Amino acid sequence: MNSAATLNDSYLVPEEERAPLRSKETYTALLRRLSHQSVVKHFDAYGDVPWDDADYRIDPDDSRWEAGDIDPIGITTWYHAQPAGVRSRIGLHMTTSFMKIGAQFECILKRGLLDFATRLPNNSPEFRYVYHEVIEEAQHSLMFQEFVNRSGFDVPGLPAHMRMGGRVVERFARTFPELFFMFVLGGEDPIDYRQRLALRSGREVPPILKRIMQIHVTEEARHLCFARHFLKRQVPQLSAARRLMLSIRTPLVLSNMTPLMMRPSADVIRTYGIPKQVIREAYAENPRHRAENAIAVSKVRDLCGELGLLTPMTIKLWKHLGIWAV
Fold it and tell me: What pTM was computed for the model?
């Protein structure tokens, strides 16, 4: 199958894969189906993205990079007062920063998945699927980094303390895989939410960004499905102590991960001298932004409810961290 042929003008944003309602599909059958889809519907970072096509060139003066009304900063008075070239560069710089963070996050994810796979027994239903996901995430990292390289911005990506903390997260894939996969959802769900929002908005975006987002959300539909169904299978088997630990750590993970994809990095703020008051107006004190943060992690929150991880105590924690439904 020519997967790239699906990325045409009639492309429809796919829903997240899931076991059909009222289906008797087993966990093993679900993983077999996801693995088959990785064979017949996958993409190549260089074969399926026409990097050297003139229409796909990254032009910092292209007005389509502007933040618009999808990002809260795009509707501030300060942003609209900037010259057109500055507005487009801020939008491109933010996009580039998100790409770099995505590449670094997926590096942590791949290392963790490989560690997870090494501990699986022979004939494990997860082994083949996990390797398919690692291959696809590697292609995503190639896409994201190629975009960064061609953008003209030398972005740092994740803050230093998060890059160091990535090694701790990787170890959870061996010692506490349920927490590792909550981390996976904490990183992937906000990215997926933001990209789906952009693709469904009807707003024109540069072709290179549209193609990358289409590839990413199409394959993430499988990855997110696996993480959720793995947790549904494993969490009920945890001890009471581990369930308590998971119920507390999950909102802490989400509250740290979500802002990385939902607001400008310190590098962007510093480069354009964005005033602190503008950041407060657009993000910290903006009810709409707080609601968006809660929506971005709503699927994880619903999963926690389904798994019995929402208690009066942890609900207070979710609310305190600003990621509870508004």
Answer: 0.93
Spatial CA neighbour of 177 closest among 221, 117, 257: 117
Residue 277: pLDDT above 60? yes
Number of neighbouring beta carbons within 10 Å of residue 20? 8
At residue 69, φ and ψ (nearest 5 deg) are -95, 5
pLDDT tens figures, 159-188: 888 888 899 999 999 999 999 999 999 999
- Amino acid residing at 303: L
Nearest by Cα to 192 from 240, 228, 163? 228
Distances (CA, A) of 162 to 80, 169, 256, 262: 32, 10, 9, 16
Q: How far apart are CA 79 and CA 90, in angstroms?
A: 9
- pLDDT single digits (tens) 4-36: 667 877 788 878 877 664 567 899 999 999 999
Long-range contacts of range 274-283, CB-CB < 8 Å, 24 or more positions apart? 274/73, 274/78, 275/78, 278/73, 278/76, 278/78, 278/79, 281/76, 282/71, 282/72, 282/73, 282/75, 282/76, 283/72, 283/73
Other beta carbons within 10 Å of 265: 22
The residue behind tokens 């927490």 is: 179
Do residues 202 and 3 lie in contact, with contact meaning Cβ atoms separated by under 8 Å?
no
| Interacting residues of 92 by C-beta distance below 8 A, sequence separation 6+ | 58, 60, 62, 65, 151, 153
Instruction: Using alpha carbons, list the distances in angstroms from residue 193 to 32, 46, 53, 161, 200.
Output: 26, 25, 28, 25, 11
Cα 284 to Cα 50: distance, rounded to the nearest angstrom: 38
pLDDT digits (tens, 9 = 90+) for 131-148: 999 999 999 999 999 999
Q: In a 3-state reduction of DSSP, which class is residue 125?
A: helix
**Contact between 67 and 87 (Cβ < 8 Å):** yes
Q: Tell how far CA 3 is from the center of its chain.
A: 22
Cβ-proximal residues to 17 (8 Å cutoff; 6+ apart), any chain: 34, 37, 221, 222, 224, 225
